[in-house]
Specification:
The complex is a heterodimer. Chain A is of the alpha/beta class. Helices cover about 30% and strands about 30% of the residues of chain A. Chain A contains 9 helices and 16 strands. Classes of the chains: A alpha/beta, B alpha/beta. The site of magnesium ion (MG) has 5 residues of chain A, from helix 2. Chain A: GO terms for molecular function: 2 iron, 2 sulfur cluster binding; flavin adenine dinucleotide binding; metal ion binding; oxidoreductase activity.
Chain lengths: ~280, ~475
């Protein structure tokens, strides 16, 4: 059954790839900030991925994936145009609330670059002045620069090695933006927890409302297992149904990072076993 | 006609059911209870007095004609027994296995007043399993009408409603968020208690009635209840999304790695097949010493699963006494046989940190029973100065669930003050044509209660659509 068919694929680098998947109903329903859960095959695990883009006319949603472990690497190897995913469910999570900010920073780093795009576009459409700040390790990892230029009023590119844009971390980009604009009233930051934590720290002194999209380990994505719980201020929230967006100044990132290591030994074992099997003739 | 049976003439002992040896089964996921064979079923059927006042029927939430089907077994007319069962209960193989019979049908059985009650559940299972083996199914002649019915959630509530509406001639689609239908039966209750092939066989019968299953569909988010009615052409909708949203104890250490809900453990193990990791990709937390908090069915399942996954020790920590434990009696009994250590009147106060983000122990206090509380059970109170520690590396919470929030977030359905869907006595919600039942209305209950609710909603739905029974 060719449900959830992959209709296009693009490889941005050795580790980052894009899949455009057919799901007309989801393309109509998706809103910025939402995610899907994917199962590659019948034996697969359920992994959450942000809806990085959706095209209501083509009836597709777009996922941008970093190959970091067993499942994402196997998808990188096996998901070709014309093949299908075994499972795809969503859109999940509460859509990002697009209020009426006047000037907003949209910050994306690592696997957060793609997910911040629909938010930047929606904020722009809502009339905000959008400053995009994107962080990559080096020039050859950059993707979607054109898309972001079209959606942002200003774009600050940061690379760790200075091979493109400004040399430095994302927080250096934020410092530049804040130095140039005293009136930034909101910040959206998506990326690895360390990066989101640093962004929240960078905006805290100026009390700029900072929304982050947390990425804890999930199973069902429907609020049934509690595996995705995060500490937000004094509360415990389930990211899949109460989030995934939360106030970055309240999220306990250290707790999040610890919880993301819950299955490290098993994940290493799974990946090792899989890569060994790939080398077999 | 045979001689009239009396309490003195019937077999005095309840016919035992063959079981896997506890030492063996605690290491495998094969079914624990093997079921009756014909001979055993015949013998047990002779224990039924065929009471004219039929007290057992009123003990069954769906009112199965119990003496009727037992009598057919006695006549060796198993097909007839099956027909009687399925005229009220769609899933005899499932209910026979998982109903808390001692609180329901068997709890009020006349024989039970002086001897052990008739094993109604085991007989029901025997008939259901025979039907699966023989490939029987009761697909009636269905006269199609033009109504379309949407069912949200494929647990027992949704399945029961779907079956009745399909039999009434409607075009029925069941939407399920997971990749497979079945609800708690699939993701929660482990195979050694309810094997997946049994569930799939019962689901197949729904397919034979023409029910369509659409999995991977999160209603509320992919489309809303309102859209189903206004845009997608459904004439009526039933919401049976279950409860979910597991509670935590809110004690220090709750968020440590190594503390998880029974739902998470069971879903990883059962539905996602984590117990076959790495042949299946979903990792499963394994504990050497596992402490499970709670004493309901969910807790028993989490403990017995942990034992099978290779734990050296599994503790049950419960703040009340054995008498108050909400689990089915048989499950407590089986868990005890399998070597689970029960610590009644014990309440956790803190999960202890191993310094690396994981768990090293569980600090508890001893409890004693005080005055009865609003539930009529004696309220446990902590004994001052009685703190002590369990050494454990995995803590599993099985202390109940709250309402799943998705329906409330995405529809105009009126909720009650606890977040469950509000309905009237006929299970109608605040939206015309939309009905709800099962755990999402009552809070966590039982399989047969959920099925009963699904059937009741179907009756209301038929009345709403003007379909005559
Ligand atoms: C809401 C949300 C949105 C996400 N969006 C994206 C995205 O757009 N692009 C992208 O590349 N990645 C995204 N992720 C992360 C992605 O789910 C993980 O990288 C992926 O599950 C790793 O699987 P693996 O088997 O390849 O690697 P593994 O080696 O199994 O895991 C690598 C690390 O990923 C995390 N992880 C593992 N399993 C899960 C799981 N079931 N759920 C969440 N995290 C897990 C753990 O921290 C783990 O240490 C998102 C996560 C969440 C929660
Ligand atoms: C571990 C465990 C053991 C149990 N043991 C027993 C027992 O021995 N005996 C007994 O009688 N009872 C037992 N119970 C209780 C019993 O299983 C439940 O009361 C019963 O399953 C409730 O049925 P339901 O149809 O209301 O919901 P569920 O069985 O919870 O099914 C709801 C379904 O809806 C799906 N869903 C949720 N949200 C959406 C959405 N937005 N869109 C689409 N689909 C959605 C879910 O994925 C799920 O499949 C047990 C429960 C658990 C958790
Ligand atoms: S459905 Fe449950 S309560 Fe009813 S007769 Fe069967 S076992 Fe007893
Ligand atoms: S109450 Fe017991 S003995 Fe009487 S009819 Fe019911 S099952 Fe038979
Ligand atoms: S992923 Fe299970 S509750 Fe969020
Ligand atoms: Mg993985």
């Amino acid at each position: 059954m060719s449900q959830f068919e992959i209709v296009s694929r693009e490889d941005f680098s050795e580790v980052t790839y894009l899949l455009e998947v057919r799901h007309p109903q989801m393309a109509r329903a998706a809103r910025p900030g939402q995610f899907v859960i994917v199962m590659l095959n019948e034996h697969g695990e359920r992994i959450p991925l942000t809806i990085a883009d959706f095209d209501r006319h083509r009836g597709t949603i777009t996922l941008v994936i970093q190959a970091v472990g067993k499942t994402t690497k196997q998808m990188q190897q096996e998901c070709r145009v014309g093949t299908s995913l075994f499972g795809l469910v969503g859109p999940m999570g509460i859509p990002t609330h697009i209020g009426k900010p006047k000037k907003v920073l949209c910050v994306g780093g690592g696997l957060g670059v793609a997910p911040v795009f629909p938010q930047a576009r929606a904020l722009k459409e809502a009339g905000a002045y959008v400053i995009g700040i994107l962080g990559f390790r080096s020039k050859d990892l950059i993707f979607w620069e054109d898309k972001f230029r079209a959606a942002c009023d200003e774009l600050i590119l940061c690379t760790n090695d200075g091979s493109a844009g400004m040399k430095g971390l994302i927080t250096d980009g934020i410092a530049v933006a804040l130095a140039g604009h005293a009136d930034v009233d909101e910040c959206v930051a998506i990326g690895p927890p360390v990066m989101m934590k640093a962004c929240a720290d960078a905006t805290r002194a100026r009390r700029i409302k900072t929304m982050v999209s947390v990425n804890p380990i999930m199973v069902d994505g429907t609020g049934m297992c509690g595996g995705c719980r995060v500490k937000v201020g004094d509360d415990v929230k389930f990211a899949c149904v109460d989030g995934p967006d939360f106030d970055g100044h309240l999220v306990d990132f250290d707790d999040l990072m610890t919880r993301l290591r819950r299955f490290t030994p098993e994940e290493k074992r799974a990946e090792q076993r899989w890569s060994d099997s790939c080398r077999m003739p | 006609m045979a001689k009239k049976r009396t309490i003195r003439t019937i077999p005095q002992e309840r016919t035992p059911m063959r079981e896997q040896d506890p030492a063996v089964r605690a290491k495998n996921f094969e079914e624990v209870a093997c079921g009756y064979n014909l001979e055993e079923a015949l013998r047990e059927s002779e224990r039924c007095l065929l009471c004219p006042d039929e007290p057992c029927i009123s003990g069954c939430p769906v009112g199965i004609n119990i003496p009727g089907f037992i009598q057919k077994i006695g006549e060796k007319n198993l097909r007839g027994a099956y027909d009687i069962l399925t005229s009220t209960n769609l899933l005899p193989s499932i209910c026979g296995r998982v109903c808390p019979q001692e609180n329901q049908c068997e709890g009020v059985c006349t024989v039970g007043e002086s001897l052990e009650a008739v094993a109604i559940g085991r007989l029901e299972r025997f008939v259901g399993d025979t039907a699966i083996k023989e490939g029987w199914s009761n697909v009636p002649y269905i006269e199609r009408n033009r109504f379309r019915v949407g069912i949200v959630g494929s647990g027992p509530a949704g399945m029961a409603c779907a079956a009745d509406m399909a039999k009434a001639g409607c075009d029925v689609t069941v939407y399920e968020a997971f990749q497979e239908p079945g609800g708690v039966l699939k993701y929660g209750i482990p195979d050694f208690r309810l094997p997946n092939p049994t569930i799939d066989a019962e689901i197949d019968k729904l397919r034979q009635l023409g029910v369509r299953f659409e999995c991977n569909t999160l209603v509320g988010r992919l489309f809303t209840i309102e859209q189903m009615i206004d845009e997608m052409g459904f004439d009526a909708v039933f919401v049976g999304v279950g409860a979910g949203y597991p509670s935590a104890l809110n004690i220090p250490g709750d968020s440590l790695n190594g503390v998880l809900s029974a739902n998470e453990l069971l879903t990883r193990c059962n539905l996602m097949r984590g117990r076959d990791f790495p042949n299946y990709d979903t990792p499963l937390p394994v504990g050497k010493r596992v402490a499970v908090v709670g004493a309901g069915n969910t807790a028993m399942d989490a403990m017995r699963v942990s034992m099978r996954l290779g734990a050296d020790k599994v503790y049950c920590i419960y703040r009340r006494s054995r008498k108050e434990a909400p689990a089915r009696l048989e499950e407590v009994h089986h868990a005890e046989q399998e070597g689970i250590e029960f610590h009644w009147l014990t309440n956790p106060v803190a999960v202890l940190d191993d310094g690396k983000g994981g768990v090293r122990g569980l600090r508890c206090v001893r409890m004693e029973l005080g005055e009865p509380d609003e539930s009529g059970r004696r309220r446990p109170v902590a004994v001052a100065g009685s703190e002590f520690d369990f050494e454990t590396d995995l803590v599993v919470y099985a202390i109940g669930t709250n309402a799943n929030p998705i329906m409330g977030q995405t529809s105009g359905l009126k909720l009650n003050k606890w977040g469950y869907i509000a309905t009237d006595d006929n299970l109608a919600t605040s939206i015309a044509g939309v009905y709800a039942g099962g755990d999402i209305v009552t809070g966590a209950a039982t399989v047969i209660q959920a099925m009963g609710a699904g059937r009741k909603a179907a009756r209301s739905m038929k009345a709403f659509l003007g379909i005559r029974d």
